[in-house]
């Protein structure tokens, strides 16, 4: 079953405003047990989320082009807090990019990855699936959620962070999101802070936007880090894939998760 009993992370508005994910803080080991780092020919390239023993969810744009679409070039690092110290590494058996993915506007920006070997139960203290939101799951503006990743701490960085970073963001009203970017479809939503300061960045793509259901309940994979204008810029929040829209599509390949 998916994650229901994790405590909410300690929310401290970042003491260091540029400690990545933009405006993030270091995570503890096992705090985000569904977070995955996808390595392409040996280097961290995108994030993903564990949804079952052998399936991950990521962003379609991570696998654009023939080289990136080849599962043999990828390794999935699970149960990892510090880059290079994963508790479990698996090859990737197949990559399923959504058939409607549009590389011009990032619509339908979702992909499934099947691991070559399922992660072992002995790792369950650091690896757990996140719950899939049902089709009826609502994304409400003002809700507080968390983004996590090893991407750059600021837009100008060349290197990612070595320790998994987290930042609390809020869901932004869809009308405001639409007026900011103009090309927001029903498969997208915005989250961040309109003041900037906290956001995903390059290298966080494909990773989770995790929301806890009311009253410290289950954690849901509400969004996937998709795109945005720069990183952490005022008035330009991050844009995320609305995972609930894809519940039937995911269920087609991974019947166990809903």
From TrEMBL:
GO molecular function, one term: serine-type endopeptidase activity
Lineage per the UniProt record: Eukaryota, Metazoa, Chordata, Craniata, Vertebrata
Gene source species: Buteo japonicus
Region Disordered, residue ranges: 1-22
Pfam families membership: Trypsin
GO biological process: proteolysis
UniProt protein name: Transmembrane serine protease 7
Peptidase S1 domain ranges (all copies): 21-255
Keywords from the named record: Disulfide bond, Hydrolase, Protease, Serine protease
């Amino acid at each position: 079953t998916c994650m229901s009993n994790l405590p909410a992370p300690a929310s401290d508005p970042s003491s260091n405003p540029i400690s990545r994910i933009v405006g993030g803080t270091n995570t503890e080991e096992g705090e985000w047990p569904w977070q995955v780092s996808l390595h392409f020919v040996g280097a961290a390239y995108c994030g993903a989320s564990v949804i079952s023993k052998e399936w991950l969810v990521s962003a379609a744009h991570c696998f654009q082009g023939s080289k990136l679409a080849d599962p043999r070039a990828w390794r999935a690092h699970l149960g990892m807090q510090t880059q290079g110290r994963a508790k479990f590494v698996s090859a990737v058996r197949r990559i399923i990019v959504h058939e409607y993915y549009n590389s011009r506007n990032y619509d339908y920006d979702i992909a499934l990855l099947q691991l070559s070997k399922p992660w072992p139960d002995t790792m369950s203290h650091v690896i757990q699936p996140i719950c899939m939101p049902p089709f009826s799951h609502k994304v409400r503006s003002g809700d507080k959620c968390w983004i996590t990743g090893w991407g750059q701490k600021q837009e100008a960085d060349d290197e990612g962070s070595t320790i998994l970073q987290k930042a609390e963001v809020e869901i932004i009203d869809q009308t405001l999101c639409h007026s900011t970017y103009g090309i927001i479809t029903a498969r997208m939503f915005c989250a961040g802070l309109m003041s900037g300061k906290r956001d995903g960045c390059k290298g966080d793509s494909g990773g989770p936007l995790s929301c806890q259901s009311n009253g410290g309940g289950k954690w849901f994979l509400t969004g996937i880090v998709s795109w945005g204008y720069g990183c952490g810029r005022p008035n330009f929040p991050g844009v995320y894939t609305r995972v609930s829209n894809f519940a039937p599509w995911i269920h087609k390949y991974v019947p166990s998760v809903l």
